[in-house]
Structures are given as C-alpha cells and as structure tokens.
C-alpha cells in the first residue's frame, strides 16, 4: 500500500513540474519584457540652410554640413505616444562626437525633437528655447522602433531669419554709440518649431563707436530674429555729443525663415545729412529685391 501511495505522489509532482514549465504562446517570456533596441542619430545641417551665410553671388551649396560648422549647442528630446518626455540630452561643441547620439528604446512609436543654436541659448527646456541673436536650427519627426538597430541621418533646418541694418552714410565724428532695438521678438516653441506669439520680448543692443570708425560708410549690424510671423518695428538710435539722441524708426519689417532682411539707408546728422531707409529681402543665394522704401 505504501508503494502505491509513493507512486501516486511521484505522478502528482511530475504533472505539477510539467505544468510549471509550460509557456503561454500569447505572452512573451519575462526576460524579454522592457527590452530596448539601439538607435543612432547623425545630425547635420541641411544644404539650403547654409546658403544664407554666403554672398548672393556665391555658388549654391548642395551638400549637407557637419553640425559643428554652424552650431555649438544641441538639445535632444524624445516623447512617447502619450506625449510624455522619456529622454533628453544636451550636447555642446566640446562634447566628444558632437552631433552624434546613441540611445535605446523599447519597441514603439516616439516623437523626436532636435534643436541646435550657433550660440548657447539664454533659456531652454523641452517646451521652448530663447536664443537672442543666434542662428536656430530645428527638426521634429516620428521614430518607429522595432526589434532591430536603427541608424538615421537627420539634417536640421533654419527656423529663424537674419536682420541686417546697413548705415550707408559716414559715421559722424561726434557719434558716441548706436542702438538697435526690435519691438517684438519671440521664443521658439519646440512642439512645432514656430514662434510663441503669446509672449513678445523687446530686444535691444548698443554698439559703442570708437574714433577709428569715424567717417566709416556702410556700417553694418547683423542679428538673428525668431519672429518670422508678425511685422516688427526696428529702431536705430544714435547718441551724439552735439545733437544728443536721434534716429530712425522703420515700421512693418518682416523677417522670414532662412532669409536675410536688409535695411539700408542714411541716419547720421551733421555735415553728411540724412535720408530714408530701403528694405530688401535676400532669399538665400538669389538677388535682392526692393520691397519697401522710406
């Protein structure tokens, strides 16, 4: 009788062991849960975005550029399908392999946002970036991760424009400084790469004039502007020992993405006199076209 009980007990243990080792075909093994797959990004600058740096008479650039040739700062943000930030990374020009990112994700669909600036931004987070007077390059795209390694070449595009103010007449000998003011600029929204018009920022920069610059013609000031959606007012103010403070206001100036807007004219008083300003737009490598005259 004891032998029968022993055999029966062994059969029960064998059945339980077999049941424990069986696996449901509808569920993955526990050791594969949360597995991540490698993703590599090689980040550069789109060819068309480089032409703004060149003279309108220069040959058109057709090859994409290494990121380090036009930027010193890179921010990388990744959001999941619920729009939750899952990873982020900041690189600078001193980072080894600047512009190359290796990451790992579980299988799924993600949104990747990349933004690069020529100079370090004043403010930045996963929602917006403020980079006064600096070139801004941007790209947003969907990334689908499957059970394999992914390598992508991503070329960023310029989302702001350049403002150039050229003073044609000679700088008066009694000039102390020249101030350039912009009535309204904006930060850049990273969810869509457009200016945040809900919060305008006034901007200004003063250039002190050394005696060595007296008599200089075509004195030029350049800056980058994020406001590419609304007209702005540009003010040029001269501080002079004899005439005090005076200047010109140019209304309804539009800045367009990846385009240089040129304001040129006379501003100084004194023996040289003064005249109005002309506004032109240089679309990359094309010829200038006069838009408004003052």
UniProtKB/TrEMBL annotation:
<protein>
    <recommendedName>
        <fullName>Fimbrillin-A associated anchor protein Mfa1/Mfa2</fullName>
    </recommendedName>
</protein>
């Amino acid at each position: 009788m004891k032998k029968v009980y022993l055999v029966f007990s062994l059969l029960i243990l064998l059945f339980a062991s077999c049941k424990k080792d069986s696996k449901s075909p509808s569920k993955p093994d526990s050791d594969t849960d949360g597995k991540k797959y490698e993703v590599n990004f090689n980040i550069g600058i789109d060819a068309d975005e480089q032409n703004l740096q060149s003279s309108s008479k220069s040959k058109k650039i057709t090859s994409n550029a290494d990121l380090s040739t036009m930027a010193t700062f890179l921010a990388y943000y990744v959001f999941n399908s619920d729009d939750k930030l899952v990873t982020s990374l900041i690189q600078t020009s001193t980072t080894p392999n600047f512009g190359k990112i290796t990451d790992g994700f579980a299988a799924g669909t993600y949104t990747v946002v990349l933004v690069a600036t020529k100079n370090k931004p004043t403010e930045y987070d996963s929602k917006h970036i403020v980079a006064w007077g600096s070139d801004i390059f941007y790209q947003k795209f969907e990334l689908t991760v499957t059970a394999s390694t992914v390598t992508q070449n991503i070329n960023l595009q310029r989302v702001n424009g350049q403002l150039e103010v050229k003073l044609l007449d000679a700088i008066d000998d009694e000039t102390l400084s020249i101030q350039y003011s912009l009535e309204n600029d904006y930060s850049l929204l990273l969810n869509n790469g457009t200016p945040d018009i809900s919060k305008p920022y006034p901007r200004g920069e003063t250039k002190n004039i050394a005696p060595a610059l007296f008599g200089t013609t075509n004195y030029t000031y350049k800056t980058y502007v994020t406001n590419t959606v609304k007209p702005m007012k540009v003010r040029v103010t001269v501080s002079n020992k004899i005439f005090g403070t005076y200047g010109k206001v140019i209304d309804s100036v539009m800045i367009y993405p990846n385009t240089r807007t040129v304001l040129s004219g006379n501003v100084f008083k004194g023996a040289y006199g003064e005249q109005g300003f002309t506004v032109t737009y240089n679309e990359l490598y094309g010829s200038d076209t006069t838009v408004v005259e003052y």
